[in-house]
Write a structure and sequence with these properties.
Distance between the termini: 28 Å
Number of strands: 0
Strand content: under 5%
Helix content: over 70%
Order of helices and strands: HHHHHH
Radius of gyration: 21 Å
Shape: elongated
Amino acid sequence: ARALIPLMQEQGTQEEEAAISLGASGLQTFFRVTLPNIKWGVLYGVLLCNARAMGEFGAVSVVSGHIRGETNTMPLLVEILYNEYQFVAAFAIASLLAMLALITLVAKTILERHLDEGQPRGD
């Protein structure tokens, strides 16, 4: 929502209203007018959501119940393995999380550049 609301407010409703006045259905308007205009914002929001989900520890630890193999996430698995003195496995999973974090950071930077290209500058 943080990525999409400002983007959609800036674009306005003129294109959607024009599509509806020309006889497009709600789904046609969404898929042919709205979605193409907000696709980079949607990708950015999904990326940020993914980043938060990968690193979430506290809330998941409280709510999940720690059922091994069913409700654990990777950060919780790292904790379990570390507490069981399986340091190599804990380090391997933590390294995978770190690699995914770097990939997410690179993707975020690319998407931010792409989103900034469409923004007018007030210089």
